[in-house]
Structure formats: structure tokens, C-alpha cells
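note to self — DONT lose this again. spent like an hour looking for the file last time. sequence + predicted structure for the chain T wanted, 488 res
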Amino acid sequence: MLVLLLGALFGWLALGRPLTRGVRVAAFALLVAAAVAYPNFGVFHPGRGHIHYWDVYHYFMGGKYLPELGYTHLYEATYVAGREMGALADATAIRDLTTYDFRDPRTLDAAAVRARFTPERWQAFKRDLAFIGNHIREWPGPLLDRGYNDPPPRAQLLHLLVGPVRATLTSLTLLTAIDYALVVIALIVVWRTFGAVPAALAFAFFWLSFFARFDFIGGALLRWDWIVALLLAVAALARGRPVLAGLGFAYAALARIFPAVFLLPLAIKWAQARWRGERAHDLGRCLATAAASVVVVAVVLLAAGESRTFAMDYVTKIQRHSREAATNSVGLPVLLVFQRAPWRINAEGGVFVTEGDALAAQPSPTLMRIVAGVALLLAVPLILAASPVVGLMYAVPLVFWGVAATGYYYSFLVLLVLLPWHDGSPDRVRWLEMTLLTAMMAVNYAREAISPDLVPLYHGASLGLAVFFVVWLAFEYARLLSPTAARE
């Protein structure tokens, strides 16, 4: 209902209605309602509480015990520790994180697994696992997941954060609350930078997101730091703080890699200014700061022997990981996979695609590079015509066309609601774009209410985004070719 109300408000403004006091009140009311609705109106995870223990298992255990586990031994250690504690007797398969194939855990060398730990650390591992594991109902399901996949800089940061912490209800509550504090900080900064109404509408959209809602990512461990860094970078750039902006973009890229694409519009704008003989001082400082930050972090990690090993392990693992088409991923590559792969019905009537079929249906890397290149070429004229801040939003569809990303990453769709405000109140075309985006979100919720099967749900979500981005691009070119008509 709230999604429909937000879409109706966007639609009202798309009709050319002014931002009256009533509209402002409605925007703020939707912000408050969305904030209350985000944690499922205080229900959190029904029957499970406020902590997403499946996710916390991967991020807390993977981060705290990074020196012993690296990127490939979490499930092995979990199985061995679980059997020592009398659990996981029904686990007949675990995912081998070096190959992503399933293996019989009974073939593990338990002594070799324990040898990766000191006796004290092994006891601590079992103690933390016992607390977290007792809150997960789906065992041995987590052992079939895809492991802990933070990039090395982010993994080292998380290790420093959780390394000295024992897993308890209090400690995990405080750790998972960091995300909420970060989002509130982002809201305040965006409010002060773009204004009250833009912040209210953007964060109402953010908290009502189909892709990034509490069910999927709420109560997890430090999952929002990258989007907060991205929003703070945008705000800093809008306020003429290029160094802070560069640091924000660098953090987002180091934390999740794909946000590096948001530097492309800035690089294009910088090149445009230099071509014209302009200095583009702020853009240059922003890009230089971002590049220098990434290089410094990379050098520091590579200079440390253990960190260098983690980095190489990560590269190997993520190459394998990127070939997997997870059912909760969004993007053109995964859309093509689930369009081509045969859908099957399990004994319970649920729809699924086997990993073998999904792997066989992977699109050609050459094709995906061509599509990404065409998408970038189509974005260039729009970027050149926009201000640097507004031009950032043309990086949003580039992620969709080039990458299969986990659904919650599409929280960055909030930029399509926020960035048009930088040059003043959005025109009717932009309001219409926001209306369509929100309508697509409402359709996804409706489809989920009919059937929660992830394969058709996320396939439909990717298909909807593909259609939206094509229409959105057409509207943006219409604005470019007829800017006066867009405001009438």
C-alpha cells in the first residue's frame, strides 16, 4: 500500500502539480511510514527476531576467523566443529568453496581443519558457532550457500571490527545496529545537501525497496556501508567537497567493487572539461582522491604477506563465484541465464533451476562486453549534457546491463529519485520516470504475494528492470532533444 501511495505521489507530480504544502506533508508522512514499515512494522524477521542469523553466520564467522578460514574453509570448519558438538549429523553435502561443487563432508580431514586454528581459537570458533548456529533453523542449508565474499579491504575491516567480539545477543544486536546508524547519518547529510523533500522521497523509496527490504538484509552485519558511502560521496560532490567525495567513492568501490562504475560519469565529465580547455579542478581532485585511495589500500594489502594471500584467494574465488547464476541475483546476465535454462518443479511444487543448467545457459562473455559497451556509449551523450552530480545517475543502468548482482545491491536505485533534484525540482518527465520505477516495484511485491518462488520472482524483476531502463533511456533522450517540452 505504501509503495502505491509513493507511486501515486510521483504520478501526481508528473501531471505538473506544484510542490504544495500538502505534497510536502505527504512526502514526510511517507518517509515516517516507510521507516516504520521497513522492519516489518516491528515484527522484524517473523518468529526469528531482529537478527538475520544466516547472514550473520557468514559475515561474523567469516570476518572474525578470516586468518584461519580465508575465503574457502568456512563450511569445512563449521562441519567439523558442528560434529564435535553433536550437530550436523544430517549434513550429507557441503559446498566446496574452492570449486563450488558439492562434496561429502565425511571425507574431510578433521585434523587438518583443526590445525588451521590454535587450540584457543578453535574453542572460540565453536563457542561462537554454537550461539549463532542455535538460531538458524535451516541447517545444513547454510553449508550449501556460497561462502563469505567480502573483497579483501572490506574483509580486513570487518575482521578488525569483530575480531575481539564474542557472539552474544548483545554484541550481535549492537553490531547489526551499525547499519541503521549509518543510514540515519546518510539521511541527515542528504537532507542538508539536497533539501527536506528530496531526502524524504528518496529515503521513503529506499526503505520501501523491493530488492533491499528487511526480509533480505535487515539485521545483517555491516551490509549498508557501501551505499551510505555512495550517498555521502554524492552529497559531498554536490556541496563542493571533492576530496570527501573521492574518499566516499573509493570506500564504496573497495567494499563492493561494482560501485567503481559510478566514477565513469565523473571521468567523462572531467575529460569533457579538459577538452574544452577548462580546469575541472573539483572533478580532478575527486577522481585523484578515489584513485589514490584505492591504490594505497591495494599496495598496503599486497605488501602484507597474509593479506596478499587473501587477495589472490579472493580473485580466484570471485572468478568462480561470478560464473554462478544465483536465483536472488538481478541483471541482464542472470536474466539471460534463467530465460534460457529449463525450469523444473520440485516435490513441493516449487520452481527451480539446477546449477548445471544455469551454468550451461551462461551468456557469452563477449556478448556481455558488447552490451555493456553499447550501454556506455548510449549513456555518454546524456552524461555530457548533464551536470557532474546528475550525470552520476547514468551509471545506474550500466550495472544492470553488465553485472549479475545480488538483489539488495539495487538499493542504489535510490539515486534515480535523489539525483534529479540537484538541478532544481524535477520536471514532468523525471517524475514520470519515478512513477514507473515505483510501479515496477509494486508489481514485484504483487507477484511475490501470488508466488514466493525465487526463480520466477527474480527473473520477472530483472525483466521488469530491463524494460524500465529501456523506457527510462528513451525518456532521458527525449528530455535531451526537447528540454522545454519536458517542463510543460
